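TL;DR need structure tokens for one chain.
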Amino acid sequence: MNNLQELYQRIEYLRNNGVKMKEVADWVDLAPSVLSSLYTTVLPNYFTNLKTYPPEQALEQALLLVNNVSKKRLVHSVDSLIARLGEMEPDTGSNPRENLFAWQFQEEMLRSVQKVESIQGTYISYSLSSSSDHLKVEPFLIAVSDNKEYIRIGRLSAYGDVQWGFGVIGDPQNMYCFFNESDPPHFTPVTVYLQLPLFRSPNQLRGLYVGLDYNRNPIARRIVLVKEPEPISPEEFTRMKSGLIPPEELTDEQQAYYEYTCQPGDFIKMCTVPSLQMNAGDLVKEKKMLEL
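>> reply
TL;DR here they are.
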């Protein structure tokens, strides 16, 4: 099964030179989700398993991680896949690594799918409201996209709007969630940075929520995500409850989340100073305004 290494290297070559996964899949007449599973999960785990198991068992163990790749079809078609991919060349008219960060970001989105298994699920998030001292309660969904090419992030806002984005796991302890909290064509990006505990299936994630307040000024707040005990479908997720809870109506459990996320030292905020002079005096004015 040495040709599996050649298959992986050919796909990697095309990806590294700017060819999209869907284009590769169309070229070899495979569903994008199948090719993505093969490239991001099956083959990397197969190579890792070879350190412990003989080739056939290593492949069987790797295939257990996905449900859309057939061992029989893979073994019988690997030579033809390699030959077909050998006929495909990237567009040399552009340099996909001209913006190295953008290229790396796309690659990390794909790799992150392999790292998200232990934290997939539905969570209830708790953070400070931008408009009051209320506790903001919003469901979050962390899942793999249908095409298995990125981590899908969903948020049901406190006002009932469902927003979808994506996540990137840079290393075992850090995850970044990105989504747009405005309806298109408006673009108001939000970033939620989460710390990932170093054990399997944590029931709580903590981090920072960075976005804009109602005056379009940047604000960073603590956020806590508490995992729901039972799996919830995307359809059920959109029907969950969200909202703002005033301090006097908090339960004992919610009070703990309120104390952690909603105190004066738990957020950093900016404001717009009227009649800007663009000098050090504006900085003094801004800090005084924030104290009010």
